[in-house]
Amino acid sequence: MDTVYKDIDRRAHALLRRFFGYDSFRPGQLDIIRSIMSGRDTLALMPTGGGKSICYQIPAMLHEGCCIVVSPLISLMTDQVAGLNANGIPATAVNSGNAGNENRRALDEAVRGHMKLLYMSPERLLQEMERIDISRFVSLFAIDEAHCISQWGHDFRPEYSELNILKERFPDIPVIALTATADRITRDDIITQLKLKNPFIHIASFDRPNLSLKVLPNPGKSKRIGIISKLIDRYPDDSGIVYCLSRKGAESTNAELNLRGYRSIVYHAGLTPKKRDEAQRMFSDGDIQAVCATVAFGMGIDKSNIRWVVHNNMPRNMENYYQEIGRAGRDGMPSETVLFYSYADVATLQSFINESGQPVLNAEKLNRMKEYCESAVCRRRVLLSYFNETLDHDCGNCDVCLNPPERFDGTIITQMALSAVIRTGQQVGLTMLTDILRGSARAEIIERGYDRIKTYGVGRRLPFSEWNSYIGQMIQLGLLDMAYNDHNRLKVTPYGMSVLKGATTVMLSRYHPAKPAAKTSKKS
Length: 524
Ligand code: ADP
Ligand code: ZN
Description:
The strands form four sheets. Strands 3-4-2-5-6-1-7 form a seven-stranded parallel beta sheet, sandwiched between helices. The chain is built from 22 helices and 17 strands. The protein is α/β, with parallel strands linked by helices. Helix 5 links the parallel strand 3 (91-94) and strand 4 (117-120). Bound molecules: adenosine-5'-diphosphate and zinc ion. Adenosine-5'-diphosphate (ADP) binds next to helix 3.
């Protein structure tokens, strides 16, 4: 096996050094390159900044012909092409930002075999496919931001769905799909939608241990500004981002910071394109300390010394949250993230969801975000388990770890719950599971025969809300997986199985009845 790859490895390394100036591949990159070179479809999940581009750029150079890269944004294409050309690699983009004859020339160059990489939008690719015989010069399709193809993803783009014809029309041209955010369900969906054949899947760790995680419930307005000011003071020569839910929120936070003498700017989709470019440039090149922005800010930001990210409002889902905090600390140095959590935000986000195309899915995602904010277990474990990655120890770099609630050995409680899940054939959700454990005699339980399983009623002594908290923690720790594309049914994960078999113990946080639901508090 290894000898087969020897030649590819050698040539790939040579290209890496010569054209990109790096000495070694990062974990996973070479495996992906080998997979593509053996003609296999490939799915690569790597966090932003993980080094996805090289994974198809090097195969593009190793292959005869040209790699077509599908990308959703012109700005991403432009950056990539400029970078490649600067390194002496023939690459070009076809898009609506270019003049018609420019596009024709670019395509022509590619057809004649003078280009190694050709960037286009999905709709453009489909258009061109009708006009020219792609198979004559294309060696590889790279689908960037591949989660855009899935309705389960957070950035669904209908144009991407059309890409399902690539494998039908060109079964022999390998496809590599790349994304920085995809939970298991989205991941599976990408494979189905693109019709990838027995793909090689590489999942890089999504852990960013240099980012500290902190959630602050119900801070008042002055406390928020106070915390942001302290962050700026701590890193006066670096910069940070304050994410706000609304343009108005971004404007007013920015005004507050300016009043305090900080070099802060604002960024949202309400600005003219010119103003937006200007803001982005000032942030990237200037000595701006803070940008107060909506989610419109960030795509394509590649600034290494972002030392902190504050969420002035709760993000709408964990994918967005992960992306947004991930803009800090790209250089690997310690960086801080703080999320201000309030019930008012939950209500606002809920109202958006009711108007969104997919209210059930989005409500579920919002719920997971809310649970993260209310977590009694290590936040990094919650975050990673959301992306189906198991962290089997507390991180020591989140507010829960630094200020832990009372813990107890929850192994037996966990085994009770997981065993009940298994005995129902993994067909129940959270409420039903709790009812089974507590020996409820409601009709559905009797009808389905759940009163006859061995763990029925074993948890009678704990109240419903307490069980709910513990099962919630089991989900957050990644012992149970709650599948939102399967009616939120609970499944025991491999990590959960190891607890069930007695190979691993589990610490749970002692449940204390909820504090009364506070509105945004006025104090401090
Ligand atoms: P992604 O597309 O995953 O967000 P990029 O492909 O833009 O990430 O890569 C992020 C940065 O890491 C780039 O500056 C890239 O040049 C750099 N990089 C990629 N691979 C390597 C490597 N093997 N060694 C060092 N730096 C690398
Ligand atoms: Zn932690």
